[in-house]
From TrEMBL:
Pfam families, per database record: Imm5_like
Lineage: Bacteria, Bacillati, Actinomycetota, Actinomycetes, Kitasatosporales
Stored InterPro entries: Imm5-like
Domain Imm-5-like: from-to ranges: 10-140
Organism of origin: Streptomyces fagopyri
GO molecular function, one term: exonuclease activity
Keywords: Exonuclease, Hydrolase, Nuclease
Name of the molecule in the record: Exonuclease SbcC
Origin: domain of life: Bacteria
Amino acid sequence: MPTDSDKIELSEHELREIAGYAAECARRTLAIFEQSLPADSRPRDAVDAAQAFAAGGRRTAALRQDAWAAYGAAREAVPPAAADAARAASHAAAAAYLHPKASAHQVKHILGAAAHASRAEELASGADPRVTAGTLDWACRHAPPAVGAVLGRLPPAPSGGGRVGELLRVLDAALRA
């Protein structure tokens, strides 16, 4: 089992696949955010920036700023589902900054967008367990090989984090299986 001080192998291809996956997960919930704040493009900008990186773009300061801007949108969103949708977008852009370090925290960079998107869809559905199960299943089926490969080099997802943390651990366990 790797420890937090260990370095891991992380190729640029894997990093791009992970960012693309995170962007796909977050994109599923943009409408949830935009129903509440249709004029606020920060989450969509973050998802688009993550997708551009995944497609071969550069990892720039603008990408990091888009991640922080989506995080700011999440803090300003009133409905909890909209806030989690914006957090998913923030995590999508931040996925490009995954570090080659065997830290449980890095699992959040890989799966944070999927976990927050799952929570956004769960909240938007009125906590319908079928929606939650369907969202988690979608996230597992659409994960590219790099997601499972890199997760296998990291310690398991950390404890805590409330409901999003639970969803993160469910995804982590499923994608390692």
